[in-house]
Write a structure and sequence with these properties.
There is one protein chain. The chain is 44% helix and 18% strand. The protein is built from 16 helices and 19 strands. α3 packs parallel to α5 and α12 packs parallel to α14. The longest helix is centred in the N-terminal third of the chain and has 40 residues. It is globular. InterPro entries: Divisome_Glycosyl_Hydrolase (IPR052177), GH (IPR017853), GHL10 (IPR003790).
Length: 432
């Protein structure tokens, strides 16, 4: 019988090494399962945000409650807070711009007389949360506000001469987005915020727009006649008239982006509109072109639908597929209202539908996250923890710091961008 020394020796070594090798393999598997999802989330810059509204002021004004809020959000693996800074014609921070224009006879302060925005930013950053202040009211302002009463020439109107519409915020007037003084006012607020606070970004939502019925004020009519040699049509949905006004709002958004990037190139320029067909036709917001023109760093589309099928339909639109290939994109999910709570089951089904399509989420709004009318607090906390089992850290955008020149005609917008370190000129030309 021939003795196989190699076979015999290998078997002995294998028997002695089996347990250590098994333990090492097990550790590798567990280590990989623990950390791989974090890497994946980080690379996608997944949005896990929540808006903090006027309804959350009792929290924002209290240092202790703010600390508890940001700690809870960090523990549940959220990564972004969108606090309101512009609502009902008033700013939520000490503003020299508002003081100079005499449109705000008071200052929102904390219980200790402190700056509530500065306090939130400081505490949130200590928990690795981004803070992106939110211009909630955009061009809206109540007709009784000091802004509307002191600056009547800034307001636009409908064809019949009326100046207000009914919104979720009640009866509102609309600042004329085409008026240079209105544009300068919004830009001044933006500059003030950007220079005064350690922001991670700024967000404009569906109210940085204009209902399509408006735009028949004297200034806008004269501007339209000057540029087109035509009188605005009686039909507010006339395609040429819609395009011209949407084009003007786009030009303004490009300039706002330039303003931000010149001060802080890495700030996130965030937009949270309605779904595209509605936003363009009825609110003159051509946000898909904003993305194509490279002025949007993140997009969160508001989809406040109870029916899951209708919700998923808005997530699956071609424009959403296009946007998420370019920038971080998410869906605004309704977490409830004071008069209308939303179940954890509905929240979970909508968030998972978004996640399955590579989209992040932002909840409207903070207080309603913990609404226990449909389930206890323990259930709500466990529900959010199950949706976000791993952290998803976010960072500020890496700006190219390009100089931009905007040119427009009634039919198109052209943005020429020239990187400082090359002689290349890139032109994005988007037909309307």
């Amino acid at each position: 019988m021939k003795f196989n020394f190699y076979s015999f020796g290998f078997q002995k070594i294998l028997k002695k090494s089996f347990l250590p090798l098994f333990l090492i393999s097990l550790l590798i598997v567990l280590w990989g399962n623990t950390f791989t999802p974090v890497t994946a989330q980080t690379s996608r810059q997944e949005i896990r945000g929540v808006w903090m509204t006027n309804n959350d002021l009792d929290i924002l004004r209290d240092r202790t409650k703010v600390q508890e809020a940001v700690t809870k959000l960090q523990q549940l693996n959220f990564n972004t807070i969108y606090p309101v800074v512009w609502n009902s014609g008033y700013v939520m921070y000490p503003s020299q711009v508002a003081k100079r224009l005499e449109i705000q006879p008071f200052v929102f302060q904390g219980l200790d007389g402190h700056d509530i925005l500065a306090d939130l930013i400081d505490k949130a950053h200590r928990q690795n949360l981004l803070v992106i202040p939110w211009f909630e009211f955009g061009f809206m302002t109540p007709p009784s506000s000091e802004l509307a009463m002191n600056k009547p020439e800034w307001l636009t109107r409908k064809k019949d001469g009326t100046q207000t519409s009914i919104s979720a915020g009640g009866e509102v007037s609309w600042l004329n987005p085409f008026h240079p003084q209105v544009q300068q006012f919004i830009s001044d607020l933006l500059v003030e915020l950007t220079q005064k606070y350690n922001l991670d970004g700024i967000q404009f939502d569906d109210h940085t727009s204009l209902p399509s019925e408006f735009g028949y004020d004297k200034y806008t009519v004269a501007l339209y006649q000057q540029e087109t040699q035509k009188t605005p049509p009686n039909d507010p949905q006339n395609p040429e008239w819609v395009n011209w006004r949407a084009n003007k709002i786009t030009e303004f958004m490009v300039r706002l982006n330039q303003t931000v990037k010149q001060i802080k190139p890495k700030m996130i320029f965030s937009v949270s509109p309605n779904y595209y067909n509605h936003a363009y036709k009825f609110q003159l917001q051509d946000w898909l072109n904003w993305v194509r023109l490279d002025i949007v760093d993140e997009l969160i589309v508001q989809v406040y639908k109870e029916n899951l099928g209708h919700f998923i339909d808005k997530l699956s639109r071609p424009e959403m597929e296009e946007v998420k290939q370019k920038i971080p994109a998410g869906i605004g999910v309704m977490a409830g209202l004071r008069t209308k709570p939303v179940s954890m089951q509905q929240i979970q089904s909508q968030v998972r539908a978004a996640q399955q399509r590579g989209l992040g989420v932002a909840f409207f709004y903070y207080e309603s996250l913990w609404n226990t009318a449909q389930g206890g607090l323990t259930e709500r906390l466990a529900g959010f923890k199950s949706l976000f089992p791993y952290p998803a850290f976010r960072t500020a955008v890496q700006s190219r710091e390009w100089d931009r020149k905007v040119e427009s005609t009634p039919g198109e917008i052209k943005v020429e961008s020239t990187p400082e370190d090359t002689n290349l000129t890139v032109t994005d030309q988007i037909p309307f």
